[in-house]
Amino acid sequence: MLHTLADAYRAWAVEEPHRYLLIQGAPVPGYVAPDDTLDRARAVLGPFLTVFADGTPGAQVAAVVVAEMTAWLDTDEPVGAWAAEYAPTAAGETGKSAQALAGAVLAWAQLHGSVGLEAAGQFVGMGHSGATLLGAQTEMPADAFGLE
Questions:
Q1: What is the 3-state secondary structure (H, E, C) of 27-95?
Q2: CB 128 within 8 A of CB 105
């Protein structure tokens, strides 16, 4: 499921690079996105919460990333509602919600790095496929959470 989501994310970005870069590019200093923009951005990453809700994070991820996500959930009610919407099996358990959030954020970082470089044309002439690189990078968060 994780690879399917990653492939769909990449397919859209490669097909619509100008839109992807507009959405995921560097923000204007001081800009604060309106709530509806945040809701749309969260909707893209929501299915990743579902994937990671039942994973088991490794020690490094659990000790650091899940702890930070727990603090985020404790201080940002809309993020908690978002996590509960997409990962209802984790709702009510801050640790499980934080775990799902940690996985989604880690996966997004992997996706954005690889897909953003490809959408910006940085892989041209490098002799590899963006799809191949993304597949390998998607294995990192999958392995970190014991996903198959």
A1: CCCCCCCCHHHHHHHHHHHHHHHHHHCCCCCCHHHHHHHHHHHHHHHHHCHHHHHHHHHHCCCCCCCHH
A2: no
Tens digits of pLDDT across the chain (148 residues): 999 999 999 999 999 998 888 777 777 888 887 888 778 888 889 999 999 998 999 998 888 999 999 999 989 998 888 998 998 887 776 688 999 999 999 999 999 899 999 998 998 999 889 999 999 999 999 999 999 7
- Domain 2-21+33-144: which topology? Tetracycline Repressor; domain 2 (1.10.357)
- Interatomic CA distance for residues 57 and 79, integer angstroms: 20
